[in-house]
Amino acid sequence: MSEPLVIIGKGMAATRLIDELSKRALGRYAIAVIGDEPRRAYNRVLLSPFLAGEIEEGDMELKPASWWAARGVTTLYGQAAVEIDAQAKRVMLANGASIPYSKLALATGSQPIRLPIPGADFPNVVTFRDFNDVAAMLASAGRGKRAVVIGGGLLGLEAAYGLARHGAAVTVVHLMDRLMERQLDPEAAELLASGLRAKGIEVALNAQTQAIEGDARARRVLLKDGRSFDADLVVLAAGIRPNVALARAAGVAINRGIVVDDRLTSSDPDIFALGECAEHRGAVYGLVEPAYEQARTLAGALAGEDVRYEGSVTATNLKVTGVNVFSAGEFLESEGAEIITLRDRGARLYKKLVIRDDRLIGVVLVGHTSDGLWYLDLIREAASIDAIRDALIFGRSVADRLAA
Known about the structure:
Elements: E1 3-8, H1 12-25, E2 29-35, H2 47-51, H3 65-70, E3 74-77, E4 81-85, E5 90-93, E6 98-100, E7 103-106, E8 110-112, E9 125-127, H4 131-140, E10 146-150, H5 154-165, E11 169-173, H6 186-198, E12 202-204, E13 209-214, E14 218-223, E15 228-230, E16 233-236, E17 240-242, H7 245-249, E18 258-260, E19 271-273, E20 278-280, H8 288-302, E21 315-318, E22 325-329, E23 338-344, E24 349-356, E25 359-366, H9 372-381, H10 396-403
Parallel strand pairs: 1-2, 1-7, 2-3, 7-19, 9-16, 10-11, 10-16, 11-12, 18-20
Antiparallel strand pairs: 4-5, 5-6, 8-17, 13-14, 14-15, 21-22, 22-25, 23-24, 24-25
Helix pairs in contact: 1-8
């Protein structure tokens, strides 16, 4: 008889887990997937091009209904899990039903942070996390409308770009002294800001939001330094936090996320976590590739394999037409590191490589980012770059010719 495996969350991490598990132990588990959104799993990364009008809604679906059926997966969509009874090994749903499990995987993702400021609950103040958020943005911002995006990280800039594509006048308000400060050094961030301004997107830095003012709707964003920006729409993109409430209530160990070991096992040996809700060796990854790597490891563990997750080298890729950015690894200067740079400010081109002990450990690209994944592979392989060092800054094609 198949062992009951329940997965809470039906996003990208959960879908990849099922895909990987079906390759290793098809039929070993009777899988039930619980998701509170009333639609099949979709690619959240594609919300940005969907907002920008570059793809259709159907392009975002991860797998068709036939794929789930072929793997014998029971899908419970529009069903919120409200409690985990770890003693009885049951998951309670909002409709009063309960589902037994032998193994439970938590892929609950994260939720956007709503700033604790006056006016954050106005109806035209939205986050950027799902289809409903995109629908709200498109309803409130079009040609002639004014939009303020609070947060100059990856999601905030993608939201700003999408809204500008629909004709809105967009201002990005960012607390820090540079955009994407967790992924870019100052020079790359300045080029990015310059490129966005050239596209008509206003950028306000060192900008702490004090309040969102209005009547029945938001009308302006007020900063602590006295600056203000009129707004028909406000998008909160000030970060995310892991969804850990279910796990915490079930007595599972929590730090920032659900604490897991190298086999993605929580403090409860029958409860696992992966993706944005999981914390491994002190790190919580808010990116897709680490979630996929965790899914491979967890699938192996559930299939009885001797596998370990060692952590991920993260990479960030921002695709805004004409202002492409890529970064990976340890991109800031550090002791013992060597820096190689190539810059053409007129063309808004910047490349920075960070090398230590004859190995590439970090990269930042602005403008031409087509070699980003190649650089990422070199970082992950941690192999000597001595044979191609002289050509490394010029990209893969030149380095390949040198090595031939």
